């Protein structure tokens, strides 16, 4: 597994935003973020024609930092968090919504590989 830091990740669309905030506990929120993150990683791989063999794993080992940011005149939820994945990813890549505007930037973690 590889560890990365993900900054200002817009992982929640309108429907997921409501589900995330309606979740009754932190475990439900964590599992939801991991599912969405896995989808974002698969979308990235598909976008660069990366044929992945096997299952993509994505984990959020620690509670994410939830922040509010202004995007297109609206306050939105973004997350800063550490992620763990079995994918080797390029530093500086973006995942999620609005990556061209600096959201969802990935950095190698100090832990690097676990």
How does this model look, in words?
The protein has 114 residues and is α+β, with helices and mostly antiparallel strands. It has a single domain, classed as Alpha-Beta Plaits, CATH 3.30.70.1900. The chain is built from 2 helices and 5 strands, in the order E-H-H-E-E-E-E. The protein has helices at 14-22, 26-47, and strands spanning 2-9, 58-59, 65-71, 74-85, 105-113. Strands 1, 2, 3, 4 and 5 form a 5-stranded antiparallel β-sheet that branches. Strand 3 (65-71) and strand 4 form a beta hairpin. The longest helix is centred in the N-terminal third of the chain and has 22 residues, at 26-47. The radius of gyration is 14 Å and the shape is globular. The termini are close together. The mean pLDDT is 90.
Brief account:
Strand 3 (65-71) and strand 4 (74-85) form a beta hairpin.
Q: What is the chain-wise order of helices and strands?
A: EHHEEEE
Percent of residues in β-strands: 25-35%
The termini sit apart by 6 Å
Count of the domains? 1
| Sheet of most strands | 5 strands, antiparallel
* Helix share bin: 25-40%
Query: Which CATH first-tier class would you pick?
Result: Alpha Beta
Shape: globular
So, CATH architecture? 2-Layer Sandwich
- Structural class designation: alpha+beta
What is the count of DSSP helices, taking H or I runs of 4+ residues?
2
Mean pLDDT: 90
How large is the radius of gyration?
14 Å
**Number of DSSP strand runs:** 5
CATH topology: Alpha-Beta Plaits
Unreliable parts: none
